[in-house]
Amino acid sequence: MLPTSVKQPILGLVILWLSFFTTGIHSSHPDVGDELHDLHTRAQVNTVDVAKLNFREGLGYILPQATRQGQPGNNNKHWLQRNGKWVQEGPLHYYEFMPRTRNIPITTLEIPQWQADLPEPTTVDALQDAAATLHADKYKGEIDLKVVSPQYRGNNGHRRFIAAVNNKLLRFQSQHGAEFQAGGRYYEQKVRMDEISSRMVTLRVADTQNFLIRWMTGDKPGMWNLQEVPEGQSQARSTVTTLEVPSGVPGVANYKTVDFLATYNDPKNEAKLQLKGFTSVADLANWAAQLGDEDIQNPTVAYSRENVSHFKEIQQWRLIANSQPCPI
Questions:
Q1: 181-to-177, 185, 194, 320 alpha-carbon distances in Å
Q2: CA distances (Å), 183 to each of 14, 195, 273, in order?
Q3: Whole-prediction pTM
Q4: How many Å separate Cα 238 from the centre of its chain?
Q5: What is the mean pLDDT of the chain?
Q6: What angle, 0 to 180 degrees and rounded to 10, lies between the N-to-C axes of helices 187-217 and 127-136?
Q7: By the 8 A CB rule, do 238 and 217 touch?
Q8: Who's near 86: CB < 8 A, 6+ residues apart?
Q9: Segment among 17-26, 62-71, 91-100, 233-242 with least mean pLDDT
């Protein structure tokens, strides 16, 4: 398992990334309809013409609306601050969006407390604290797709959901590119989203390195058992040499990565690595770099299903970080 300092921000960052599509965050007029919130389709609306930009792809990717006995469901309600009432129009406030990803209703009396507990991250520097706040408030594990986007429940649902949201943003961005440039309406949102996707890549790479160290060291079935019991001691220690790499992610000072040269050249590891089929440092390092890549034919050590899934997730966030479409 990842150290808490690395693993903690992941779900919080993903939820933050999603929030920029559906909320009025960091807007001078948060109660005015926001084009991006079309991802959050309003009740009984199949096509949406928001702010006369004809952005008509209301597929309800995020928090799709529902009615119960003809009445709007929880996701439909939005607090209109200037009028002091609940309405069905307009993007959600940040403090509304977050609890709804966990299917938690909000009452009028609770609004001040939610506002205080979930302050909006209005700058890149605020992302770390926002992610930590969400983590402390039980935003852990994975996105609850049955609440956030039921249509993507099932096989590879989380990855397909993130891909669909990203691809829709790219289509919108291609239509209104100037609005995403410096001085444009969505520039600040894009800056924060780009930073989040970059951090996600780093954290997932750190996750992979952590897995490699554990797998290469462990003595359970299938693991590589690169360890020894020093003379005069009873507890084994790893013979996998590691380096500490600065993460560049606020709150995550550094993470460990395998030093493949030192590990391969350690006489204590030589026989075990050769039995696995590795004949050089490059062979070992290339195998690790491609860990989970289904396009690699006959890898030296077969990749597990989890390796493949993790590799696809890293590649997906790399595409998002580079403003590229993702396969669904």
A1: 7, 8, 13, 17
A2: 25, 18, 55
A3: 0.83
A4: 31
A5: 80
A6: 60
A7: yes
A8: 77, 78, 79, 80, 108
A9: 62-71
